[in-house]
């Protein structure tokens, strides 16, 4: 397992392609200038020991040295030991609606981005709970299994979008059924499911049955409503520019609205609560208090420990390459020249 202490220094690597391009254009300019001064054969006689590839080799040493120095500043760390630790917490699954209606912009910037922000802020408040993520629209898709790796959870969360599932619609029942398979029956932890949605459900009767089955398995179902009762059209964008609005079969613009009644009924039947997601701070604070009131169950989790700094190896390699760059001259290496590996005349060797 590798960790990076100062990831911000990765931006310094952008210097390398810039320097490589500058070198490339400099070589082109040099050749054009030399041709205006004299022809190629004359230049070789005037500077017979001028190497054609040493300048490129020096650039490789320079750029390689800089790259290793930047990696040294980032300070990679390697976990040298995998150990099992005891932790106490709750098993939490987040089911995010990724149907097209989540593109509505009645909540800025849109419902999906608002949902992702709420879940991300909830994760920031957790300490030792295990979390999983599900994406659903017309069907449910496992995005991340139960884990204590919050960094990975945020990475998967940010990658979610409305194009990840080909089956459109909103089947909350499929998300609940899939979430029920996430929990480990051998460890009797408190089980919580957060459904983050605008409440549009195309299978309400099946959803109620799924909720009742989930509660029988000890799962508490909370719902977080994202959207407005007034509603909003669904923009269809290309490269960030709105091209049109989604229309129904009759050619009328579709207005999608937050359905609080559906979400409230799901939460009531699931022994949970409906939470208004319009205010992120209030929603996260309420959820934090709810989770803190729940009994924590001890479970085992594997994690890497004893991370050791590796920056010294990269700094050493960087300084070595820069040191070599200083001592590599632009003229031909005499002992290589004497070998005449390619059986060339002296004035054509490099």
H/E series, N to C? EHHHEEHEEHHEHEEEEEHEHEHH
Task: Using the coordinates above, name the CATH class of the largest domain.
Answer: Alpha Beta
Can you summarize the main beta sheet? 6 strands, mixed
Which structural class should the secondary elements be placed in?
alpha/beta
Low-confidence stretches: 346-350
Helix tally? 11
Explain this structure.
Helix 4 runs antiparallel to helix 5 (150-158), helix 4 packs across helix 9 (280-293) and helix 7 packs parallel to helix 8. The strands form four sheets. Strands 5-4-3-6-7-12 form a six-stranded mixed sheet, with helices on both faces. Strands 1-2-13 form a three-stranded antiparallel sheet. Strands 8-11 form a two-stranded antiparallel sheet. The protein folds into two domains: 2-80 and 308-338, no CATH class; 92-227 and 258-295, 3-Layer(aba) Sandwich (Rossmann fold), CATH 3.40.50.410. The chain is of the alpha/beta class. The two termini are 45 Å apart. Helices cover 41% and strands 23% of the residues. It contains eleven helices and 13 strands. It has helices at 15-37, 40-46, 54-74, 111-125, 150-158, 172-180, 204-216, 260-269, 280-293, 311-327, 334-339, and strands at 2-4, 76-89, 91-97, 130-136, 140-147, 191-197, 219-225, 232-233, 235-238, 241-245, 255-256, 274-276, 297-309.
């Amino acid at each position: 397992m590798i960790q990076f202490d100062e990831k911000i220094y990765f931006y310094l690597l952008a210097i390398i392609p810039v320097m490589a391009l500058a070198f490339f254009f400099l070589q082109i300019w040099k050749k054009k200038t030399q041709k205006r001064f004299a022809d190629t054969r004359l230049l070789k006689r005037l500077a017979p020991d001028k190497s054609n590839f040493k300048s490129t080799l020096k650039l490789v040493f320079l750029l390689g040295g800089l790259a290793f120095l930047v990696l040294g500043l980032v300070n990679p760390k390697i976990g040298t030991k995998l150990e099992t630790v005891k932790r106490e917490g709750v098993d939490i699954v987040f089911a995010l609606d990724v149907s097209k209606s989540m593109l509505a912009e009645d909540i800025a910037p849109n419902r999906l981005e608002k949902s992702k922000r709420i879940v991300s802020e909830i994760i920031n408040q957790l300490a030792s709970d295990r979390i999983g993520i599900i994406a659903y629209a017309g069907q449910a898709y496992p995005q991340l299994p139960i884990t204590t790796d919050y960094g990975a959870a945020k990475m998967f969360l940010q990658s979610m979008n409305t194009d990840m599932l080909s089956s459109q619609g909103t089947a909350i029942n499929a998300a609940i059924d899939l979430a029920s398979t996430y929990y480990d029956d051998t460890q009797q932890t408190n089980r919580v499911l957060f459904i983050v949605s605008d409440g549009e459900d195309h299978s309400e009767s099946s959803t109620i049955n799924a909720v009742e089955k989930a509660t029988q398995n000890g799962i508490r179902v909370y719902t977080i409503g994202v959207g407005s009762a007034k509603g909003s059209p669904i923009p269809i964008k290309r490269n960030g520019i709105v091209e049109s609005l989604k229309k129904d079969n009759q050619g009328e613009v579709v207005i999608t609205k937050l359905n609080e009644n559906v979400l409230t009924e799901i939460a009531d039947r699931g022994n949970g609560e409906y939470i208004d997601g319009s205010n992120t701070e209030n929603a996260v604070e309420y959820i934090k208090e709810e989770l803190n009131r729940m009994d924590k169950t001890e479970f085992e989790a594997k994690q890497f420990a004893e991370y050791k700094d590796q920056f010294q190896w990269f700094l050493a390699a960087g300084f070595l390459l820069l040191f070599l760059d200083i001592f590599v001259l632009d003229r031909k290496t005499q002992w290589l020249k004497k070998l005449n590996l390619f059986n060339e005349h002296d004035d054509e060797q490099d």
